[in-house]
Every structure is written in C-alpha cells, then in structure tokens.
Amino acid sequence: MAYPDTYYSRTVGPDLVTEPLSEYIETKVCVIGGGLAGVSTGMGLVERHIDCVLLEGQQVGWGASGRNGGFVSAGFSQSALKLVSWLGESHAKRLYKLTCNAVDLIEQRIIGFEDSIVEGEPGSITASWFDDEKGVRRYVDDMNRIFDEDLQFWSRQRVAESYLTDRYFDGFLNPRTLCFQSLNYVLHLARLAQASGLRIFDATPALRVQKKKDQWLVITPSGSILADNVVYACSGYIGSLQPKLSRATLPVATYVLLTQELGSRLADAVRSPYAVSDNRFSSNYYRIVGNRRLLWGGRVSMFQPSQKKLAGLMLKDLLSVYPQLAGIQADVAWGGTMGYARHKMPQIGQLSAGEWYCQGFGGHGMATTTLGGELIASAIATDDTRYQLFSPFGLRYVGKPFGPVIAQMAYWSYQLQDALRVSRLNRKF
Ligand SMILES: Cc1cc2nc3c(=O)[nH]c(=O)nc-3n(C[C@H](O)[C@H](O)[C@H](O)COP(=O)(O)OP(=O)(O)OC[C@H]3O[C@@H](n4cnc5c(N)ncnc54)[C@H](O)[C@@H]3O)c2cc1C
C-alpha cells in the first residue's frame, strides 16, 4: 500500500528496499510493526548481534511514525511533574532521563544524514494560552531543577514579538527540541538496521501468533516465522492480533495540515524560527517547513472527516490564532492513528516468557519509541531489567469497543477544562 498523501510522503527520500514474506524463517526475534517502535527495536537487536526479522503490514513508516508533527523532545505524553507525584522523584527522574538518552541516541543515528532529516532550527516554544505567568515560571523552575532541563522563560512581550497573536501570554523555550522529516527518519533507521542484518518484510501483516512449546509461530498470508521471542509494536493499528494488548490500546485519530506557500505573509504571523505548541490540554502545534509553509497539527476526533472537510477545520483552527492570515489556502491535510494507554504512558514489557510489547506512545512518540526499542532489545539480548521501570503503568482496559467514543469525550472534556481555565485566568478576551 502506498503512503497516504502528506507533506512527508511528498518530500520522502529514496525507497527502502523490502519485499513481502514468502517463506518459512526461524529466528531469535520477530518484531511485528514497522513504525518507529518496531524499527527501533529491530535496530537495537541487530546492534546487539541478535538475529531479528521485522514484519510490517503496509510499508515501513506508513503509520503514525511517518506522518506526525515531527517534534522530537524528551518526556512523555504524561506530564513529568505528574510522574513525580505518582512515583516519587527518583523513579520519575530515571524515566525522564531515559527519554533524554533516547534523544541523544537519535542524534547519533542521524549523523551525516541531517540534511534529509532535520528541519529548521533546534528549539521549540511552548506558549501559554493562559494568563498565568507564575504558573509558567514555576513549571520552568521545576523542570530545570528536578529533570536537569534547560528551559528558558520567555516573557509575554517576547512571545508577542515572535508570534503575532492575541492568544498567547508567556512561554518558554526548550532549546533541545529537534524537528524531523519523520518519514525520512524511520526509513533511514530501517536502512541502518538492514545494513546491520535486520530482515524487513513489508506488505506482510501478522495474521496470528501461536505458541509452539517455548517459541512463537507468526503466521502471515504467504509465509511464517518461528521465533524465540515475539515483539508486538503495532500501536493503534493492532486490531485483535493480541487480545490483552488490544484491549489496553485506545486508537486515537489526530490531524495535520500543510498550508500552501505563505511567502511574505508568513511574517505577518510568525517571526521566529522555533516550532510552537501551546499549553492547553487540547493544544495545537506548528512549525515552518519547506518554502515558508506552516505545518499545523492538533484535534482528535472519533470519525475521520473527509480530506477537504479536514483541511477546512484545521485552517479554521489556524485562523483562530492568526486571523490576519485569512485567505491563505490549505495544500493537504491528513490524519493518523496513535495508540494511547489510559495512563498516557508507554506500555513496555513482557506478557509471558518471550512475548514482549512496545506500544502506547500516543502524542509523544518520536523519542519514547526509541527508548522502548532500546529497553526491549537490551532485555532480550542481556536480561536488562530496566523495562520494569514501566511496570507501574500496566495494560489497563481502555473501554473497547467504545474506545473512539471515549477518546472523543475525553477531548471534549479537555476543551471544556481549557475553556474554564481561560475564563478563570484570562482577562484580555
Ligand atoms: C498526526 C500525528 C502527529 C503526531 N505528532 C507527534 C510529534 O510531533 N512528536 C512526537 O513525538 N510524536 C508525535 N505523534 C505520535 C507519534 O507519531 C507516535 O507515538 C509514534 O510514531 C508511534 O510509533 P509506533 O511505531 O508505536 O506506531 P506506528 O508508527 O503507528 O506503527 C505501527 C505499525 O504497525 C503496523 N502493524 C499493525 N498491525 C500489524 C500487523 N498485524 N502486522 C504487521 N504490521 C502491523 C502498522 O501498519 C504500522 O505501520 C504524532 C502522531 C500523529 C498521528
């Protein structure tokens, strides 16, 4: 299946050379899913000299990994400060540090390939939607003190000079954020892994996984794999392949818009090179790509609208922040499905001997998938037990078959909480 029409598929580099599986193979590890979680796991395994086969139902990077916002930064979907209150400072710091290491590892893996992968200046701004300077300062101080971050407070004047909107108040710069052509990154990583021995089969959905004594038989349409270990990295596309994982995965659709070239009009709105997100629960995020276009992300919804309707909705969101851009045109809009857990933390662990999972990276997956891949690979190769740092989060039931309704209701409740906070804190509207 071809990649969907996105900014990423329009600017993708050379093809990855793969073919569907048409034979029987015995191997040490079979990874199911060729998104960043699966490819990172495969890469981690072959780097540790473990024989591994990866199966992808469509094409490598076809899922969320090849069509996201492209923001790469430390941390999780769940707030780091919430982790402190749940787990204590020491445990939360260890988890957070793993995500920082993952960003470092990504940087190492792209050395020499930056031109086709890295986009724009490093650094991103989080702009506060709320008139709460003290709250922003407190957050910056806490993150720097507890997690050794380097966040830099930006006054509302500085934010207003850089982003010409009435919507924002104060903000902060995270100088460590990178922005990526995410499809090129997944394909680059897959090529590196292939060069180290990973065998990748695309257009090869795993249909069933059967236990065979202490091994796993993975059945696909035209071949099968017998492996000592199986790793599920299927995210929001898992369907019913593994019931325990399926019932713990909430598939959530979310969206991105690419505008047409804005030319000199871009400076009427955005005068800073840094990517932006706001701090609402139901936030928007955006960055400049290509020839002065905006790549604008946000929203979740129960049913995926048509592409034309989607472009209109996303443009409306953009114009609610930058009304002075009225008249600009959408070029293309697309959606993708993320796999969320109830606790908004990754699910990284073992169901039974040799049966692993690496999923639940919804909302914040570029670095955390890398971390998940490393922990699972290291556990299989060396009995490393660090993956157990994630055991408090578990595989809680997400309410299927009503998952999409639950996701939609959660989003509406987030919007309501944002609106209540605006009416409590903001005086300028
Ligand atoms: C629109 C959007 C914007 C986002 N923006 C950001 C961002 O800016 N920064 C960030 O950090 N994160 C972002 N995310 C989240 C991030 O993209 C994901 O968390 C991450 O890519 C998840 O990777 P994954 O490998 O777990 O899943 P995916 O990339 O979805 O990969 C799962 C793969 O498994 C395959 N698969 C499923 N079932 C089978 C099977 N039975 N057999 C074989 N293959 C199978 C699928 O075909 C798919 O390719 C965004 C997500 C979306 C959708």
What does this structure look like?
The protein has 429 residues and is α/β, with parallel strands linked by helices. The chain has a domain at 7-123 and 176-249 and 341-398: FAD/NAD(P)-binding domain (3-Layer(bba) Sandwich). The chain has twelve helices and 18 strands. The chain has helices at residues 7-10, 36-47, 80-87, 89-109, 114-117, 133-147, 156-162, 182-195, 243-247, 307-321, 366-382, 403-425, and strands spanning 24-32, 52-55, 71-72, 124-127, 152-154, 171-174, 178-179, 199-201, 208-212, 215-220, 223-232, 250-259, 275-278, 285-289, 293-301, 330-340, 347-352, 355-359. Strands 1, 2, 8, 9, 10, 11, 17 and 18 form an eight-stranded mixed sheet that branches. A hairpin with a 6-residue loop joins strand 13 and strand 14 (285-289). Helix 2 (36-47) runs parallel beside helix 8, helix 3 (80-87) runs antiparallel to helix 4 and helix 4 (89-109) packs across helix 11. The longest helix has 23 residues, at 403-425. The mean pLDDT is 94. The chain binds flavin-adenine dinucleotide (FAD). Residues 32-38, 55-58, 62-65, 67-71, 205-206, 233-235, 237-238, 241, 254-256, 297, 336, 338, 359, 361-366, 369 line the site of flavin-adenine dinucleotide.
